[in-house]
Amino acid sequence: MKNLLVEKCSGENIKIKVGNVVIGGDKPVVISGPCSVENYDTMIEIAKQLKKIGVDILRGGAFKPRTSPYDFQGLGFEGLEILSKVGKEVDMPVVSEIMDTKDIEKSLEYLDIIQVGSRNMYNYSLLKELGKVKVPIVLKRGMSATISEWLYAAEYIMSCGNENVILCERGIRTFEKYTRNTLDLNAVAVIKQKYRLPIIVDPSHGTGLRELVPIMSISSITAGCDGLIIESHVYPDNAVSDARQTVSIKTVESIIENIKTYIKYLK
Ligand code: PEP
Ligand code: MN
Q1: Is 7 among the domain residues?
Q2: Domain with 43 in it: what CATH number?
Q3: Residue 38 domain boundaries
Q4: Is the CB of 246 under 6 A from ligand 1?
Q5: How far is the CA of 169 from the centre of ligand 1 (A)?
Q6: How many angstroms separate the CA atoms of 143 and 184, rounded?
Q7: Whose CA is nearest to atom 3 of ligand 1?
Q8: How far apart are the C-alpha atoms of 37 and 96, rounded to whole Å?
């Protein structure tokens, strides 16, 4: 790759400001919330508790790319409306996945950050359209994508005019079946050393197992990532999607405490 927008030689490292939160700045950010927005009451309860423990940004899926078409597909725009209302009530920016170009414009009324899911990293029409807006994009790594394919996907968005791209390592498919995916922390080190974009890690999809989320969270931070996106719920076992990898709010709190300890140790 030569002279691409993602490369360090193309300019300054990219820092992305969302409300009062800076992604790619001095301090790792924590994004958390349920896999799916389920209803207003559950969402506001989760959000209030996450706000209290210092989570920076709220997540919640409304358009869900489920492997089976018979599984819960998300609440669609009703979910985005709930997420946006809750985000405003607790004063937190919100992020959610958009899968279809036709939904981008309307989603901008509700979202501070748009997520491109792993299954859509190769959806070049979607990437090009997201290049025409200014809102920050969390670009998840395709589950079988090489680092270079992932960077080209970022390049699609950036070359169309939107440089506000945040890479998200969420695990890749390997022969290993014990975990849902294999979290590739090499990718974090590579991106931080050679490229301009901020990178966050999703240890929830990266492992698929809630008991591994705390250790892989701190491992990701020590590998140098700019933040984490963690699936959490007030009743993790009852989460309507991805319950097995969903942690409690208390677990998110202990992850945040560990990050603070690590930062102090570095100073
Ligand atoms: C998600 O964040 O809920 C999600 C579906 O993630 P991924 O696209 O990484 O599978
Ligand atoms: Mn999920």
Answers
A1: no
A2: 3.20.20.70
A3: 30-64+72-251
A4: no
A5: 11
A6: 11
A7: 35
A8: 9
> Which ligand ends up closest to the CA of 67?
1
How many angstroms does the Cα of residue 24 sit away from the middle of ligand 1?
Answer: 21
In tens digits, the chain (267 residues) has pLDDT values of: 567 999 999 999 999 999 999 999 999 999 999 999 999 999 999 999 999 999 999 999 999 999 999 999 999 999 999 999 999 999 999 999 999 999 999 999 999 999 999 999 999 999 999 999 999 999 999 999 999 999 999 999 999 999 999 999 999 999 999 999 999 999 999 999 999 999 999 999 999 999 999 999 999 999 999 999 999 999 999 999 999 999 999 999 999 999 999 999 988
- Assigned domain for 4 exists: no
Taking CA atoms only, the protein residue closest to ligand 1 atom 6 is 117
CA of 26 to the centre of ligand 1 (A): 26
**Extended beta strands in the chain, E state:** 16-18, 21-23, 29-33, 57-59, 94-97, 113-116, 137-140, 165-169, 199-201, 227-231
Return phi, psi of residue 227, to 5°. Answer: 165, 175
The C-alpha atoms of residue 214 and residue 150 are separated, in whole angstroms, by 26
Is 20 inside a domain boundary?
Answer: no
- DSSP letter assigned to residue 133: S
> Tokens 């993790």 identify what position?
236
How far is the C-alpha of 79 from the C-alpha of 69, rounded, in Å?
A: 18
224 in a structural domain: yes
264 Cα: distance to centroid of ligand 1 (angstroms): 31
3-state class of 231 per DSSP? strand
